[in-house]
Amino acid sequence: MPFTDIMGQAAAKQILQNSLRSGTLGHAYLFTGPAGSGQMKTALTLAQAIFCTVLQDDACGECLECRKVEHGNHPDLTILSPDGSSIKIDQIRELQRVFSYRAKGSHPKVYIIDEADKMTVQAANSLLKFLEEPPVPAVAILIASNSQSLLPTILSRTQRIPFAPLSPDLMLQTLSDEGVPAPLARCAVSLSSGIEGCRELAAQNWFAEMRNLVLQLAKESLGKKGSAVATAGQKLFKTELGEHMDTLFSMFHLWFKDMLYFLHLKHENIVFIDQLDFISNYAGSRSVSRWVSYMEYAAESKKKLRFNVNAQLCLEQFLIRLEE
């Protein structure tokens, strides 16, 4: 795909295309910024542009070389991603073995390391010399949302290409054009920093179900005592929704923030905009400080999950605090 198909990121695209045009392509790039901002798509487009036999500074998308990248079977492109929770030294050694052979064409070989900030220390040290002196002409593209986790020596050997979060309005418009219902789109955009992440969330059946459940629990916690805990037991932990507790607490956080937006007359920022009638009736039933404390409860619950506190216990405690 051409660079014009990548949303936003004008600065990143300009740097890369100028380098292609002038024949001054770097040997190693570090794409940084929030996950889902288009880094992988840009990396693949850059690989296509390097291999492309038609255009000098872009990917035509039609030639044989471009189509091989598109179909994931280009012999001179290698993509590494974490094996489990990290990128291990054996993966880097295998990359070095593959790169001991010359490229099939006259172009340099390309390797992309996704989530490069998840390399083990051994893997990162193994990559260092290879990054500087590959056995064949090569272009490295490292993708990392947390570049501070990388070794300083790797940072110093790569050219940083910053990626900015896409504007929420642009992502909302894109999702709307693709037929995603507005309530789901607003929620997805608030929970993801990139359009790919938004699309992925909105396409999951559980995401719409979770949104409906959060609304039900939020409303019950304002009303009948104890009913929210019972509902959660029935609808959450006996279904696949129980696997997405992190998203549940994130949605609760958005719901409480919507109450504050209403109280501060910032209606355009409300995520659960289809619930405006309910929000208008209940926003004034709690003080600003109470809604803020509810947001803090949601954030604390997410933190507990990360420390492996039992998810059901975590939710029950959260709902009981809301009903107190």
TrEMBL record:
GO terms for biological process: DNA-templated DNA replication. GO terms for molecular function: 3'-5' exonuclease activity; DNA-directed DNA polymerase activity. SUPFAM superfamilies: P-loop containing nucleoside triphosphate hydrolases (SSF52540). Pfam families: DNA_pol3_delta2. InterPro entries: DNA_pol_HolB (IPR004622), DNA_Rep/Repair_Clamp_Loader (IPR050238), P-loop_NTPase (IPR027417). This is ATPase. The lineage of its organism: Bacteria, Bacillati, Bacillota, Bacilli, Bacillales.
